Amino acid sequence: MRRFGPVLVVVLTIFALWYVSSFLMNRTWVMDQATRAGTDPGFSEVLRETMNQDRAKLPAPHQVAAELYDGVFNKKVTSKRSLVYHGFITFQATMAGFALGIIAGVALAVAIVLSRVADLTLMPWAIISQTIPVVALAPMIVVLANAAGADSLMVPKAIIAGYLSFFPVLVSMVAGLRSPGGMQLDLLRTYGASPAQVFWKLRLPASLPYFFASLKIAVAASLVGAIVGELPTGAIAGLGARMLIGSQFGNPMIMWSALFAAAILAALLIWIVSGVERLAVRVMGGGQA
Amino acid sequence: MEQMINNQLSLHSDVATAAAVIQAQNLSLTFQTNDGPVHALKDVSLDIGKGEFVSFIGPSGCGKTTFLRCMADLEHPTGGSITVNGVSAAEARKARAYGYVFQAAGLYPWRTIGGNIRLPLEIMGYSKADQAERVARVLELVDLAGFEKKYPWQLSGGMQQRASIARALAFDADILLMDEPFGALDEIVRDHLNEQLLALWARTGKTIGFVTHSIPEAVYLSTKIVVMSPRPGRISDVIDSPLPRERPLEIRDTPEFIEIAHRVRDGLRAGHSYDD
Which residues form a coiled coil (chain A) (predicted)? Predict the structure, then answer.
């Protein structure tokens, strides 16, 4: 209870603010309707009306929860209206991009740490790559991937997700591989260790805590990349596409439920990555690294 | 005939190394800094014989650690010469002539105590069976038998430092270089480890170079005390200890012990007034 208490307070505050905002934003429409019908509704009537509109400006939390439940549990998972179906498509792209980002991030970090030339040439470009808005880049990646022969959106989506997720891995791994201090390097020098031995026996194991810390950021970035990859690219499946459909058809409930589905997916992914991290810490001595 | 000459040659070189395991001649090391050159060592000459326990003592900046690092080929002298086992410091390092113990234990947190001691053995390519045998033997030597499977964070600071000494002993180098190994430990633990170190030295007959800040520690442990002074780093006194090799802790209350300590303190003071 001590752990969940503060969290609960925050959640309740958010819900309270949300309900108040829903009431304030949806009231205009209720009042307009009443004026047109020539009635003068009381406060409780207005309140009830603002909480149950089909196309509310800001749907109330319970409406979003109902829509989310409906989209997850009441639709067949193969249905185009199932959030599980769309979520799984986004999940696939996220995982492919995550793997791509880890491989690219680790490979670049190793090159940068081992080679001064790579350090001077690659690092500035890695930083510049993150300053380009990915929304601007996404359609180009889709076009290029199609031209290169990819016959689904999965490849460009994975590339965009990888493009966002490699950077935290790269930065952390460079810091991790460089973390052994002068004394540790001197020690291996007294053993006459080769550069390869210094890398495998000292630098790589020393970098692992940094690596796992970066994975949590990378998996979240990868999910954002996958969703962004679905937004401006004419995708018809995936949580990003679902959000776009909701906005185009003027149905905020679809948008909100897709948004929360994405948030839940993100929480699940981070929870899994944290579990892997805890496991790794235990295997690596379980101590204060 | 040729065989005989070879034997004689090797016999001759044995005699030479017996005379001096480490030999420094007019050794100088100058660091170039933005504030001008810093003379960490200037014209330092010293012979360390086989089986000696030599302490280096002096205020910070006197070059005692730098001197030790020159022996280990971790620093490169800018003048003079230094030989270890009759060859250059670099060759001696590549031949794994010495084990080095740093001020901090520096154990890898992701390896067990046994795994940490195996580290040099893995790098030097010992067989698995040999590794296991050696780990068991050196753990016994530093009184840590039974801790092989523990992780460093499960051990106290003193035990960690003992494990790091075991790591330096594991590959049978004849020389042990120790840079303030007990500097970060409290006095009680330090006394205990000093006693253990003497016992270990008696059992293994290694040549030990030992950097310290502590006068009692230097006098208690050493057969030879090298007093150094700063700016430029140099040797101001070399004291051959008349104390017997067998030294109970109580020896520190004897007049002989106090006399040597007095001489060390005088040497330190002299080096200081020279500077001011």
Answer: none
Q: Give pLDDT, residue A287.
A: 54
**In this structure, what CATH number is given to the domain that contains residue B247?**
3.40.50.300
Mean pLDDT, rounded, for B45-63 = 89
pLDDT of A149 strictly over 60? yes
User: How is A10-57 classified by DSSP, letter by letter?
Assistant: HHHHHHHHHHHHHHHHHHHHHHHHHHHHT----HHHHHHHHTS-TT-S
DSSP category for residue B102: -
Among chain B residues, CA nearest to A193: B123
Other beta carbons less than 10 A from residue A278's beta carbon: 12
Select the residue of B73, B110, B123 nearest A205 (Cβ to Cβ).
B110
φ, ψ (nearest 5 deg) of residue A193: -70, 145
**CB nearest A285 (choices: B74, B110, B122):** B110
Write out pLDDT tens, residues A59-102: 888 988 988 888 888 888 778 888 899 999 999 999 999 999 99
- Residue numbers of the domain that contains B128: 105-172
Residue burial A229-238, b: 16+ Cβ < 10 Å; e: rest? bbbebebeeb
Closest residue in A to B149 (Cα–Cα): A285
The complex scores an ipTM of 0.83
pTM of the model: 0.80
Q: Rounded to a whole number, what is the distance in Å from the CA of B247 to chain A's nearest CA? A: 31
Residues of A in contact with B102 (CB under 8 A): 183, 186-187
For chain A, say whether B122 makes contact (Cβ under 8 Å): yes
Residues 6+ apart with CB under 8 A from B268: B57, B58, B59, B215, B227, B229, B236
CA distance A198 to chain B (A): 9
* Residue-level pLDDT at B8: 44
Whether residue B37 is found in the same domain as residue B137 = no
Chain B CB contacts of A186 under 8 Å are 74, 100, 102
CB pair distance less than 8 Å for A287 and B124: no
Spatial distance between the Cα atoms of B160 and B137, rounded to a whole number of angstroms: 17
Residues 6+ apart with CB under 8 A from B162: B142, B143, B144, B193, B196
Residue B9: inside a domain, yes or no? no
Residues A122 and A36 in one domain: no
